TrEMBL record, chains A, B:
NCBIfam families the record matches: fum_ac_acetase
Essential cofactor(s): Mg(2+); Ca(2+)
Keywords: Calcium, Hydrolase, Magnesium, Metal-binding, Phenylalanine catabolism, Tyrosine catabolism
Chain segments carrying region Disordered: 172-194
Gene from which the chain derives: fahA
Protein name in UniProt: fumarylacetoacetase
Species whose genome carries this gene: Sphingomonas anseongensis
Pfam families referenced in this protein's UniProt entry, alphabetically: FAA_hydrolase (PF01557), FAA_hydrolase_N (PF09298)
EC number(s) per entry: 3.7.1.2
A GO term for molecular function: fumarylacetoacetase activity
Pathway annotation from the record: Amino-acid degradation; L-phenylalanine degradation; acetoacetate and fumarate from L-phenylalanine: step 6/6
Length: 427, 427
């Protein structure tokens, strides 16, 4: 799974000039997504520089067997094929996009990214959200149990729960402030009205590739073969609704009004140069149970950033404010492989195009916190913005943008693109 | 919504003799499902007596506009049409199945139910499970908090959480005993292995008909228009996995290995004669918040029964043992309409073919408990079976069958059919 091959060579340069090293989408990346032009149908494309390459349009240059999948408005069928096909496509696209001999044929199938609309790349059968960000779990736990923030199961069980598939939307979708029941501690009874503690959560998402059959767990050694790729994920959260509703069955209406994802499926192949070992566990931490034990570089050095732009900041033309910066590998107590194996360990069947969130990824530093709940200490410490405004939670007009990328000395930068959403008032 | 019309007339009798009053499927019922014959394709049919009427086969006798939906292998498209179409179909089917003049044309399209295989009737986009069975919530709460079993939110919030759509299966599917992490209180660390506390949960399911758009709540007065019909639902549960994993985000692997549903969508129209007011609330109970307030007969007098058959009982040819009997209307603190309105109250979009479980429906009597967790008092009081065996939780070979029906003096019995599953050892 970890092989670096010719397609990772940092000296490869595409004839698409905007795909130069340093862009989000050099020829070493090649993430797939679903796009449409005005009045056009949804279809698969691959990001290269500032462009999308229409995979239908170049089907004469690709394996004939793939045509059916690339004619679909979602990528589920393609992802079901698994890694060998992904890798063969990657290899072929590198040829087509670097060799000048193909330029005349391929270039007409490039469309500017600014001219298209992107869509959720798969029909999401199930969306599951995990909670593997240990610093986030600790920060949130401290607000309830200062001396004992992590529950006893945390270092044995990759904690997860099911989310809502129908409200997964692509980056750019407005965030309609949800109504709900909220009950301040001092109030006698709850009220129903717009959430006053609307928050974002910085997460990574995994797109499931090959599935497993009901009743057949996925051994840890095979888990990565079931992961087609990665995206950014914003698990928008209404903290007041959450606090009142979540006992005893977990978050529900506090979360299911919207989940935003970035449009591109960044493959594990593209991320191969950024593999790294899982963080060293503390001496007191238990060994994972045998079904979750794995070796090798199963974490990824992915850089994360969250910015906020208010209405006022946009009007004044000032740059968005950086709320946090951090690294995914330092935040995740459990790897993507462990997440997948645990999810299927009871026989639960994963399907191509399922979406799995990691949970909020905060680092152990104040500059790397993945939610306003953490940054504002549960709303007690307002954040002062350069615009002179302050925030505890999100106000109408606020736009949150998540970004991710990988960088290393001997590899070309790989970008995830963006996942953004602007808060609008209750409908 | 509550109209009784000619199609409910108890004197209506079908020319299909096995549909005589007293059967599960008289002409006043007419639930839809998806079936297939050996090597045949999946298609919609309607239950009448011991038969299925092939809706494709009689399309010349139905509205031309429906043909596209009845040619599908799932009922999502049909359910999206809403109640007017459902009612028009019901009216037409009553004509076709009672008037002898149609018999020669219609009879060849009847297929014995014993000759077909039934399927999950919809592609389930999302499956949500609620917790509106107040006696169940009280019984379970007592095992943790004897003096204060219900949490403070219970009588304000119809508590629910998202379940797994991919593992929803039709009645008859084997229950593969799940593996998982379980940690007895006295053990220092958890172990991974087959669940030792495998349980069933007696629930009703709602099939969503017309959906709502993201961001647009469903007013309580319109909620029933979004419910296409009802089924039985068994929310199989591994109590040992649940106890260890569920904090803080709710049940996950303890539930998502399988959810069984009965194959027939029993329409709200068929249930109209069995409407009844919601149970009287106690004087100390709060009024529902305004968005959840409704009047009229919003509960349904549905009879429920659970039976257990062990391997030994089957070998000896003895009848299944009745584990519980009760009435849904007495068990539900929140109505189906309140469930739907609450689910969409934050703007969450429901879609045609979504499945919503009520939660376990126990009555306030020991003879009407909806799970072994309750009957065996958390495993402390074994149940003695007539076969000489005893049970706290399910053993391999045990088959659990849920049944439901409505009966009243001035109405014909309406049956739901069965929802059954047999436990088999871990794969």
């Amino acid at each position: 799974m970890t092989d670096i091959d010719d397609t990772h060579d940092p000296s490869l340069v595409s004839w698409v000039e905007s795909a130069a090293p340093g862009s989000d989408f050099p020829v070493q990346n090649l993430p797939l997504g679903i796009f449409s032009e005005a009045k056009g149908r949804r279809r698969p494309g691959v990001a290269i520089g500032d462009y999308i390459l229409d995979l239908n349009g170049i089907s004469d240059f690709l394996d004939e067997g793939w045509r059916g999948d690339f004619a679909q408005p979602v990528l589920n069928g393609w992802l079901a094929r698994g890694h060998d096909s992904q890798r063969a496509l990657r290899k072929r696209l590198v040829e087509l996009l670097t060799d000048q001999r193909y330029r005349n044929d391929i270039e007409p199938q490039l469309i500017g990214q600014s001219e298209v609309r992107m869509h959720v790349p798969c029909l999401v059968g199930d969306y599951t959200d995990f909670y593997v960000g240990i610093h986030h779990a600790t920060n949130v736990g401290k607000q309830f149990r200062p001396d004992n923030p992590l529950l006893p199961n945390y270092k044995y069980v990759p904690i997860g729960y099911h989310g809502r598939a129908s409200s997964v939307r692509v980056s750019g979708e407005d965030v309609i402030r949800p109504n709900g029941q909220r009950k301040p501690p001092e109030a006698e009874a709850p009220e129903y009205g717009p959430s006053r503690r609307l928050d974002y959560e910085l997460e990574l998402g995994l797109w499931v590739g090959r599935g497993n059959r009901l009743g057949e767990p996925i051994p840890i050694g095979e888990a990565e073969q079931h992961i087609a790729g990665w995206c950014l994920l914003n698990d928008w959260s209404a903290r007041d609704i959450q606090a009142w509703e979540y006992q005893p069955l977990g978050p529900f209406l506090a979360k299911n009004f919207l989940t935003s994802v970035s449009p591109w499926i960044v493959t594990s192949d593209a991320l191969a140069p950024f593999r790294t070992p899982m963080p060293q566990r503390a001496a007191a931490d238990p060994e994972p149970l045998p079904y979750l034990r794995s070796e090798g570089d199963t974490a990824f050095e992915i850089q994360l950033e969250v910015t906020l732009a208010t209405d006022k900041m946009r009007q004044e033309g000032s740059a968005p404010h950086v709320l946090s910066r951090g690294t995914a590998s330092a935040a995740m107590y459990w790897s993507a492989a462990q997440i997948v194996t645990h999810h299927a360990s009871n026989g639960c069947n994963l399907q191509p195009g399922d979406l799995i969130g990691t949970g909020t990824l905060s680092t152990d530093s104040d500059s790397g916190l993945g939610s306003l709940l953490e940054i504002s200490r549960g709303g007690k410490q307002p954040i002062e913005l350069p615009s002179g405004e302050s925030r505890t939670f999100l106000e109408d007009g606020d736009e949150v943008t998540l970004r991710a990328w990988c960088e290393a000395q001997d590899a070309v930068r790989i970008g995830f693109g963006e996942c953004s959403g602007r808060v609008v008032g209750t409908a």
